[in-house]
Amino acid sequence: MTNDATEARVLDAVRQRRELVNAAIDEELPLAEPERLYEASRYILEAGGKRLRPTVVLLAGESIADVDPGSVDYRSFPTVSGSTVDLLRAAVSIEVIQSFTLIHDDIMDEDDLRRGVPAVHEAYDTSTAILAGDTLYSTAFEMMADTDADPANGLEAMRMLASTCTKICEGQALDVAFESRGEILPDEYLEMIELKTAVLYGAAAATPAILLGADDEVVDALYRYGIDSGSAFQIQDDVLDLTVPSEELGKQRGSDLVEDKETLITLHARQQGVDVDELVDAEIPTDVTDAEIESAVSKLRDVGSITYAREKAEELTERSKRHLEVLPDNEARRTLAELADYLITRGY
Amino acid sequence: MTNDATEARVLDAVRQRRELVNAAIDEELPLAEPERLYEASRYILEAGGKRLRPTVVLLAGESIADVDPGSVDYRSFPTVSGSTVDLLRAAVSIEVIQSFTLIHDDIMDEDDLRRGVPAVHEAYDTSTAILAGDTLYSTAFEMMADTDADPANGLEAMRMLASTCTKICEGQALDVAFESRGEILPDEYLEMIELKTAVLYGAAAATPAILLGADDEVVDALYRYGIDSGSAFQIQDDVLDLTVPSEELGKQRGSDLVEDKETLITLHARQQGVDVDELVDAEIPTDVTDAEIESAVSKLRDVGSITYAREKAEELTERSKRHLEVLPDNEARRTLAELADYLITRGY
């Protein structure tokens, strides 16, 4: 668990890298023609985001290269063989993939708010949102192809990016299918979030190892760090959806409940005999009241479902940190461990 | 121009490769879990398609390697350096990208029929169609990453695939924008179809050159062969939309007119003073009568707009064939030239 001092340190590490990542997004994804397409493509990226995944890319690179965080230019980052790669571009690539999935997911889930602003399909229209997502998809691959890595490593990074995207699609398909399915086991839910959410953290952590030419053992361990901490991140997201006020969430609190999204919390509650389907009457997030959400959350809390989810997230986080032992013992590695803690202690 | 004998030869060359490509699609894109996602992803691929782009991949490879068409296993195809690559997998990758664009375009264009069957968003639903397209997108990259090419060549093929997809998105965005824009110049239209349609033919022709390790001059010439013949293909598609009966088209004849899609034909007619917007009253393809389409086409024919488009397609085709002169003079090269002719003489 983090205390205030370590949380401040993590947030500072994320903030420092976020500024560089934001500047790099502007460079890597310029407002090209057709302008409306690129405006729509950049819209969610410009609406904010903590840049956690790019931070993982950069920190993992720093730990592998055993350099002091922030001491080396991410655009010409030293590899094991002595050449350099553009690690910042790889970090942006991962963030751009994340944005593509948000845009398409919001269409599929009919979520009209994202990061406190209208989703792309609301701010523009569904066609533009589909196409903006498709554009981000390929530009992310273009970026990952141009990191100046040794070709074998560059190709392997591309392969990982592609298989990661396939898994994300599979996870989203499972998530959608769960909404209209009978009993779902917690393990099925965990498999779904691993595919839908955690594999991109896995790719964020493993890609720098691939690009820098680290041993397979390091690639695998970092991938598993990302999978475990990314799964914990998603469970925390589910908890936050229920416990954080709407204005901080940037969307309606409890919208998962309104939209009948199953989470580890609702699955546990069902096992405790709670009639989850009757917890809220509203059928769309704009129709629900805070009182209704508060009452539903109380019931989930009373049967221990929120505690259950938190404990599962903590267990995954502890496991994620053990994977880091393969890295040199340095500040970047410690920050990666603290970041894993932060993913499940963050309040928004 | 083709005569009946050369057309029969081209169709035979396409048919032979289509069988191999179809078998390879089954192998490369198995019905994995979640099954409904993969069913939807394979749906358009299984609904037919001539496999013209994969045929271009395979023929270009055979011409570069200077082997008799069909004499060498496409799965272990000889490169310039003596190693082998899986050219069939690269061919499938290009076809899978084509399928992804069809699925997403049909959502955006609200086209409900494709290859004579309901479009994916009709046969399933819009969310599934978005996700099926996204899945094909990444699996195409996974396939292209696994051709066993020299890593530098493999990475370059991935780079071309990514930039091709970005251009296709840009072209689709321009196409959509044209529907609600004022005067469009023929050159703007040609730029749009180059992006939307021709670049994938360019990638189909250039990718084997990249994977086999051919000289840059060969890569460039084949790319331009694909761009020119692919542009001509799209112009012919626009002509066919107006001139071929619905049952042969697999969708309503004249649907471009109904949907206010600008083509080289309508742009030319506007320049001749035709009030294109008043040619048909119906606003959706299911509402239009054949008589209404026939009358509209007569007017377009009378002012020479269909002849104009045909001549432009012929000019592009002649130029495309000249790019092939960089290849060894062999049967595969002759078939590529005949295929370019076929693309603008085909009746469906």
CATH architecture of chain A: Orthogonal Bundle
Quick one: which chains have the greatest interface?
Answer: A-B, 43 and 43 residues
Terminal residue distance of chain A: 16 Å
* SS content category of chain A: mainly alpha
Strand content of chain A: under 5%
Report the oligomer: homodimer
Domains counted in the coordinates of chain A: how many? 1
Mean pLDDT level of chain A: 94
Query: What's the total number of strands of chain A?
Result: 4
Main β-sheet of chain A: number of strands, strand sense, barrel status?
2 strands, antiparallel
Task: Give the % helix of chain A.
Answer: over 70%
Shape of chain A: globular
- Write the element-wise H/E pattern of chain A from the N-terminal end onward: HHHEEHEEHHHHHHHHHHH
- Ranges of chain A with pLDDT <50 over ≥5 residues? none
CATH fold field value of chain A: Farnesyl Diphosphate Synthase
What is the C-alpha radius of gyration of chain A, as a whole number of Å? 20 Å
Sheet with the most strands: spatial strand order of chain A: 1-2
CATH superfamily annotation of chain A = Farnesyl Diphosphate Synthase
**CATH top level of chain A?**
Mainly Alpha
Verbal overview:
- Two copies of one chain form a homodimer.
- Chain A is mainly alpha-helical and 348 residues long.
- Helix content of chain A is 70%, strand content 2%.
- The first copy, chain A, has one domain: Farnesyl Diphosphate Synthase (Orthogonal Bundle).
- In chain A, the strands form two sheets. Chain A has a two-stranded antiparallel ribbon with strand order 1-2. A two-stranded antiparallel sheet of chain A has the order 3-4.
- In chain A, helix 1 (4-28) crosses helix 3 and helix 14 (305-323) runs antiparallel to helix 15 (331-345).
- Chain A is globular.
- Chain A starts with a helix and ends with a helix.
- Chain A binds chain B through residues 32-34, 36-37, 104, 107-108, 126-128, 130-131, 133-135, 137-139, 141-142, 145-146, 150-152, 154-155, 158-159, 161-166, 169-170, 172-174, 176-177, and chain B through 32-34, 36-37, 104, 107-108, 126-128, 130-131, 133-135, 137-139, 141-142, 145-146, 150-152, 154-155, 158-159, 161-166, 169-170, 172-174, 176-177.
